[in-house]
Every structure is written in structure tokens, then in C-alpha cells.
Amino acid sequence: MCVNEKNDKFLISFSGEKQTESVNGKERKILRRILLSGIASIVLLLIIIYTLPKTVLTTSSLIEYATIVALVIFLFILLIRYFGILIFSYFYMNEYTFKPTNGFKPFVSIIIPVFNEAKIIDRSINSLLKLDYPNYEIIIVNDGSTDNTKKVAETFVGYRNGIHNKVKVSLINKPNGGKSSALNLGINISDAEFVLCMDGDSMLTPQSLKMAVRHFVNPEIGAVAGNVKVLNRGKFFTDLQALEYLEGLNMARSAQSSIKLVNIIPGPIGLFRKKAIESAGLYSSDTFAEDADLTLRILSKGWKINYEPNSISFTEAPIKLQQLLKQRYRWTRGILQSIRKHKKLIINPTIKFSDTFILWSMFYEALIWPPMNLAAHLFFIVAALFFGFTTLIFYWWAGLALLDIVAALYCVAAEKEEFRLIGYAIFYRMIFILIIDICKTMSTVEEFLGIKMIWGKLERSG
Amino acid sequence: MELIPILSTIILVATISTFILAVGAYILFKIREGKVQPQPPTKPANLNAEYIVPKEPKIKKFFLDDGVQPNHKNTMFKERYNPVAVKENISEQDQDVIQEMQTEQKIELPKQKFLVVQTLNASDKTDESNAGEIKWR
Fold it and tell me: Among A192, A233, A321, B83, which is 20 to 30 Å from A437 by CA?
């Protein structure tokens, strides 16, 4: 049906995704979990009380030894993790940062799902029109926005001027169904062999697409994760997040990429081979971290995933503590839901050892590390307040802060980032990590108890 | 006074304050979230969406051997089909437009494959560029 001189309008029908969550018997399930954990804890305590007099240990010495052993293990894991990531990341960065681009330039569809992004959608699309790539189209998927996103998006439909040639921009207006359903519809509409999925608030740099596409020369590569950077810098809180993205997320991704097993393709930029994403069953809406879930499914189908440090996407970071907590709460629970979905692979390494390895590393980062870090902090607080060992906390903190400064230095140098971010490493260790780990631990407990949660939307400053 | 005990005290106070702040903020976040807990929308089995797509440029590609007309994803098409015969009926004006497009797109054609295009309506070629506003009928 033709509605406009320059554009065609079609009515398309697609299947709505089913609500997978069953409410029946959920409360009973939660109660059963609490009861089982309580019983298990009491049994453990009874065993300790019963067996302790039969050993040479007293209660106080047991606590002392247990704490020392726990701290040594904690420190050991921390050092292994840091240096392992640094070394693997170094090798990977060396391989790819200086490698010239190849001539591989297939047709790519860029899917941009938007929901109430009227303030910033023009910024995102304009960044896409400046991509240094000759062969791509843009598909905007308006996921039932209630503001004037639709109107703003419609002004972009057509053949727009790109750097190399005209870029086709089309728009899909659909009822609200969530980010995953919007991305899936866009992917289904696209005929391209490669699709780039991004967020409505993200901005790509001109080299982003060209740099990511080059990895697909290797037919084993099913997807490429991009490099996400914080756009709204200049505030203490967002600068801390800028450092976290560098040190905590991107460095880990480049280390994982040395074995081609990136475990999360970030929402703001991910380039997929359509065959790979289809074989994995597209985005699913049954977890709150649809990107982590899809990545795990792609890996489980045998595809490899690389990270491209030069494929940069700028995104807005939360500017308020409440917004940050909301975001991290969703990430943590979403990752735990994804891990739970693939629990077979966690338990049985014979199915696919690489996937088991990746899932255990995610399990460690999401579930084991935050409570360990909190426990260590609590130990030092108790030791200082009740036993007078105040200097202990200084040495502990100074050691970790030094480690963070070294990692920050490396990341800033490797990614040619702002040098001033290194200064934040001190506050990063003292404040930021602690806040995030408290949020992660609480979210883990809530996920374990099965408390309901909703998708939150970050308020955009524009 | 020595430096280390002072620094230790600062770190201790900062750690305790952060602990309290983070737990408090988390509780506040949960309270706020609890107030705005909407019911999940019931999703029907089938949904309709509106797909607005710009009209294809009026310069069409013809492949007379098998009657298959490629869509705009011409690179994919080129890999699948190998046309053997084409019709040449292009005006001078259109040839300039085609040449411009081909040079702009920088698409490298395989040596054994070739592509010739034909315009359907030369007067409509301005539709290729949609730089202005959308006009609804």
C-alpha cells in the first residue's frame, strides 16, 4: 500500500512472544528454597559444633584460621584474575590493534531499536550516516514509543547521504514488546548476511563498522563484540563508570577474545553473522540480559566470538546512584538468569568444555566474587573496630588500589583514553566497587529468592 | 602523628560510610521500584507492525536469463546468480546517473559476472535522493 510519494508503507504481521514465566506455585518454590538453605546452614553449623571439640582448635582459633585462609584464597584469585586478564588482553590487543583492515565489505543491516528516544535518536542516526563503510542500510524499530519518537524517526526514512553513497533508512512501527522483540523483528526484516544491533541511545564512531566486519573473514566467527565507552563524561560518577568500562569490561573482553570466547556481546554494539544469530534462535525475552543469553546460545552452537577494540560505541551512563543501581540490578539478575538457562553446560563439561569454562567464569564474576569482596571488607572493618587492627585495612586497600592503578594505566594506554581517568582508580577501589558489589550481592539474593523484577528505563539527558 | 594510621582511619571511615550509603541506596531503590510495579502486559499471539520503507531507486537491474530481479542487496545477489544476457536500452542521461552510482558505491564486481542496468522511468530518477521532508498523500 503506497502512502507517500517517496516511501512505501506496509503492514507486517509477526508473532508476539509468549510469557514464559509461570506464576503457579512460585511462592511455594521460593519458600522451599529458603527452607532448604536454612536447614543446610543449621546442619553445617551442627557439624562444626559437634566436631570442633574433637580437634585441637578452639572456636576463636577456627574463626581466625578460616579468615586467614579465606583472605589468602581471595587474594590469590584476585591476582590470578588481574594478571591473567592483563596478559591475555595484551596479546589480543597487539594482534588486532595494528592489523590493517581487509577488503571484506559485505552488506550490513544496522538495527536500531528505539523506545521513547525522541531526544537522542537524531544523534544516533546521524552517527550511523557518518560510518566509513560503503555497503549498509539502517532499520529503525520503534517499539511502541509514547513520545514523538515515531515522528522524529519518520523524518529520517529515505535514501540519506552517507560518506560513500546513499544509505537506505527504513522504519518499523510496532506495539511495545521489549528490546528483544524489536531487535528480532528488525533482524527478520533484514536480508543482509550481517546485522549490527545497537541501542537507541548509542553513537558509533566512523570506523566502528569497518573494523568489526573484518573479523568475519574467518568463517568460524559468528559475532563480534564492540567497545562500549561512556559518552556523558565530566562528572565524578560518570567518570568512574568510564574507568569501569575500560578496566572492568573491555579489558576482560579483549582477554576472552584471545580464545575467541567473549561471553557478553554488549547491547550498544554487536555485529552478528545472521546465520549464527538465527541458529541460536534470535533474542529471547525470558531473561533480563538478552545480550548475555544470546551470546551464550551462539557460543553453544559452536560459533566463535571476537572483540574489536576499534569498533567503538558511545553510550550514556547513569548519572544518579539510583539509576546505576537499577542498571546493575538488572544486569546481575539477567546474567544469573542466563547462567541458569544454560546450567546443563555448567554441570557437565563433556558437552562443551569451552562453554563450561565461560559459564564458570561468569558464575564467578556474578556470584562468587562480590560476596567475597564484601566479606573481606567486613572482616577489616570488624578487625579495626573491635580488635584495633586499623592499619590492616590500609595495607589491604593500598595493595588493591595499586593493582587497579596499574590496570587503569594499561587500559588508558592501550585504548588511547583520557589520562585523567587513572586518578579515579583510587576512588574506584574505595567507593565504586564496594557499591556495585553490594548491589550485585543483594540482586543475587533476590534472584535466588525469585523476587519479581521489571525492566527499568534509564532517563536520558539528551 | 604517623601517616599510615591517619590514612587507615580515612579508609576505614570511607569504607564504613560507603557500606551504609550503598545499603541505604539499595533499600531506597527497592522501595521506589515497589511503588511503580506495573502489571506485565498480556501479549497477543500475533501483532501487526507498520513498515515504512523508501521506494527503490527507479534505476532497476534486469537479468533476462532467468527472470529473477535482484533486490537492493545486490552483493548477496551477485554471489547467487550469474546472469548471461542483458538488455541495453539506456539513455545518455541515465548512463551518467548509473555511472555516478557505480563509482559512488565502490562495489567490486566479480570479473566473470556483469551487471547492466536499465531505467524504467527517467523522469523519476530524482526520487533516489530523499533529502527533503516526507509528504503524505
Answer: A233
